[in-house]
């Protein structure tokens, strides 16, 4: 059973920064999804277990940066906006390819709340 341990999140003012981290129990392609109230879960960013270039949703390009060291990934979120408010889920999968749909990931963390005030 793969365990994903998330940390970070919280409350920040618009324009501020937060860092999310996720520790896995093995080597997996890892990333983040988010879900705001009343909205569908959406892909945010991911990085393959081989490393290489991460992949980002258009709405976070230039603001969020995902990186990894071994089985831990970190997502630095800068220039946060109120519309970034959501529960953020760490995801992992044994496949090398980065997926942008929820079905592409077998393992999910419990989620961590990010709230950006205006």
Which shape, going by the Cα principal axes?
globular
- Overall average pLDDT: 95
Main β-sheet description: 7 strands, mixed
Percent helix, as a range, is: under 10%
Distance between the ends:
40 Å
Give the SSE string.
EEEEEEEEEEE
Low-confidence stretches: none
Number of beta strands:
11
Count of DSSP-assigned helices? 0
Structural class, from helix and strand content? mainly beta
Strand content: over 45%
Overall radius of gyration: 13 Å
Structural description of this entry:
The chain has 118 residues and is mainly β. 0% of the residues lie in helices and 54% in strands. The chain contains no helices and 11 strands. The protein has strands at 4-8, 10-13, 18-24, 29-35, 42-48, 51-56, 64-69, 72-77, 86-93, 107-108, 112-117. Strands 2, 4, 5, 6, 9, 10 and 11 form a 7-stranded mixed β-sheet that branches. A 4-stranded antiparallel β-sheet has the order 1-3-8-7, with no helix packed on it. The radius of gyration is 13 Å and the shape is globular.
């Amino acid at each position: 059973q793969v365990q994903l341990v998330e940390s970070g999140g919280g409350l920040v003012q618009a324009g501020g920064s937060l860092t999310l981290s996720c520790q896995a129990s093995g080597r997996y392609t890892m990333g983040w999804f988010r879900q705001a109230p009343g909205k569908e879960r959406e892909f945010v960013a991911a990085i393959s277990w081989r490393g290489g270039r991460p992949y980002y949703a258009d709405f976070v390009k230039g603001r969020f940066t995902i990186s990894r060291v071994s089985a831990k990934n970190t997502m630095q979120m800068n220039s946060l906006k109120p519309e970034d408010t959501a529960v953020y889920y760490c995801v992992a999968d044994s496949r090398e390819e980065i997926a942008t749909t929820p079905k592409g990931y077998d393992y999910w963390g419990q989620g961590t709340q990010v709230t950006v005030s205006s």
